[in-house]
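A.,

Following up on our hallway conversation. Structure tokens first:
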């Protein structure tokens, strides 16, 4: 689905990589707390990263959140919050996509197009 969106002419300068380790995406750990650094060192990753094909600069991190796995488990919600804080500390926009609806393609396209949204909290799209 993401590759189909990236294939659109307006996103021709972008490419998508799946399962990117946070320690590879964010090599400077100096601005993180000890708990955040420990989380990164334990193979924490994001589902997808959108990069600029020319500069190889990361533009957007994407997490796909399944309801049963994310919403019903307090431990997973805590890890999601930690990941949100880590990406925010590096000013890396994060798009969280729920998998509970049928509008994921439209939501993905909207999120990629709005990746320059002000930071402060992850971009969250509802399926409604």
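Then the amino acids I'd put at each of the 128 positions:
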């Amino acid at each position: 689905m993401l590759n189909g969106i990236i294939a659109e002419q307006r996103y021709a300068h972008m490419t998508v990589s799946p399962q990117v380790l946070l320690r590879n995406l964010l090599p400077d750990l100096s601005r993180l707390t000890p708990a955040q650094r420990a989380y990164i060192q334990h193979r924490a990753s994001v589902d997808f990263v959108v990069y600029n094909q020319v500069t190889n600069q990361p533009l957007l991190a994407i997490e796909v959140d399944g309801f049963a796995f994310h919403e019903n488990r307090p431990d997973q919600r805590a890890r999601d919050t930690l990941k949100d804080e880590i990406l925010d500390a590096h000013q890396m926009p994060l798009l969280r996509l729920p998998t509970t609806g049928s509008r994921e393609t439209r939501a993905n396209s909207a999120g990629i197009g709005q990746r320059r949204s002000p930071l402060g909290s992850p971009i969250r799209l509802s399926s409604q």
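The radius of gyration is 14 Å. Curious whether your intuition agrees with the design.

B.
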